[in-house]
Amino acid sequence: MADHQIPFFGVAREFAAHRQEMMARIEAVLSSGQVLQGKEIPSLESRMAKLAGRKYAVAVNSATDALFFALLASGIQPGDEVLVPDFTFIASASCVSRLGAVPVFVDVDNTYNLDLKQAVAQLTPQTKAMVYVHLYGQMGDPETVEGFAQEHGLVLIEDAAQAISGSYGGRPAGSLGQASCFSFDPTKPVSAPGSAGMLLTDDLGIATHVQWLRYHGRAQDRRFVTLGYNSQMPSLTAAVLDLKLDHAAAWLARRREIAHFYIDRLSGLDLVTPGEQPNAVHVYHKFVIRSSERDALRSHLAEHNVQVQVHYPLPLHRQPCFSNLPHDDTLYPTSLAFSGTVLSLPIHPFLSDAEVETVVDAIRQFYDR
Question: At 83, which helix (H) or strand (E)?
Fold first, then answer.
């Protein structure tokens, strides 16, 4: 048994490791007096656009806002139907409902991403868009996903909230469709000191529209040309994120090292470890195993001071907030099976080798009982 808690998140350890350089960035912003709309915002936007191979990036307060703005700026109207994976975080679908459009849930495949074969049966004349999520940090095949959207005339919004630094066939996350969205909330591999998101696009019209939307509908000439929102990213947040991007490659390498250790050491047990597509660089935002004894294993790990979580305990079609929508369980066998068996293990760059060994030993002890 571990003699201390093995933490699921690494935010506190990350700060301890980079306190001096982080506080220097924070002090510089506070000393400048421009804590909103400072130079740090366009600097971060430019860097993110370059990393994703996009022409434009727009910093906002959250990935949830970025998704909502992406749909709104792409012309999605109330009543339009939008395909969304049934097994994902709530924000992938709530942004659709927030617009007055209708989320149409689609079962997922064994990669945890939206099953395009199942999606065909869900298409109607009202289907106008698709939110494609790279769940847990592994991208879907860009060529296949974009080809599906083009074939069916759909606006493609890439929910890359969990996939920053990921790629598929050399194509970076954040480069698909009309617009892409990243999250920097504290659970993400590159995390803000609070909430933050980024929208990326190659469409100047979408970028300009979202720039208006994030600050009350104000254009560059300071006229308020549309009704907007207050979704600004603070300058301090952008400064911290810019610093963390300097470390992102090293952090990703460590996450992948831990993931591959887990996969190797947990082989042969009665559980399913993540698969990695041959052409993909999996970010392992979450390291998710599946076990038919999930709840007992979860309790066992807690007794051994290993923090774990469940992502996600309910598929979206069963969430109470979507009770007004069709929720035929027979359409979602995979997402239902996953919701009852998934368990997320600790994975972040600030776990020690000994802690990772302890997690594995505790799991093996459970199955050897």
Answer: strand 81-85
